[in-house]
């Protein structure tokens, strides 16, 4: 696992290449899938120049990260989610597909407070009981303590397990977003940047000491706005196409940094 918190920054103009809502949904789905494959902790959406669709992007990414058994309860009918059938499943540890069992960790939706505690939907055929009084209508992580006629759970987070990503829509420019993010290392991606191989040792050295790493991606037409970064890197040197789409850049870049950051564990 990474020793650091890994965040990717995306523009709210990510989907402006097409007007087709199904293709927009699929584009965002590729990024959500890539984030899960490479264990991204946080996806941050910043305001870019143009007609942004931050809410659409956030809704799709959040929907993807939510376990299937909770989606209908958490998400009301919305035009933004009309084409979610094209989204690839994440198949991460917090998206279980089998029957619940004692010792398993699951995300659950708090349903109702009772005299005995709080009823929780963990994807079983009946609500589980948490003996603590919890806020209702929140998704929390629970450990199954008892599974039988009665299902008993306790709030607890698993250790050393990838448990999905958080999505944040800042509504601010990239510069403003970065100022308040507190990242140790900021990496901008650009076809005009230095090839990673030319400064690989320097990048590795910085990552060894980092607690919070941000990788920045630009929009489909203008790329990244001018920004101060620790490194500006070209992660796809000698590209064979005139342009690289944002979702393609995310997949390619995260695959490279996955190898680099694994070496630091």
Summarize the structure.
The chain is an alpha/beta fold. 26% of the residues lie in helices and 28% in strands. The chain is built from six helices and eleven strands.
Topology (elements, then pairings):
Elements: E1 5-11, H1 21-37, E2 42-47, H2 54-65, H3 68-74, E3 105-114, E4 117-121, E5 128-130, E6 139-147, E7 151-155, E8 166-173, H4 174-179, E9 185-195, H5 200-208, E10 212-216, E11 231-234, H6 246-262
Parallel strand pairs: 1-2, 1-10, 2-8, 5-7, 9-10, 9-11
Antiparallel strand pairs: 3-4, 3-6, 4-5, 6-7
Helix pairs in contact: 1-2, 1-6
Describe this entry's structure for a reader.
There is one protein chain. The protein has 265 residues and is α/β, with parallel strands linked by helices. The chain is built from 6 helices and 11 strands.
Shape: globular
Class computed from helices, strands and strand pairing: alpha/beta
H/E series: EHEHHEEEEEEHEHEEH
- Beta-strand portion reads 25-35%
Q: Total number of helical segments?
A: 6
Question: Helix fraction?
Answer: 25-40%
Task: Please give the order of strands in the largest beta sheet.
Answer: 8-2-1-10-9-11
Mean pLDDT comes to 93
Largest sheet: 6 strands, parallel
Task: Give me the oligomer status.
Answer: single chain
Number of strands: 11
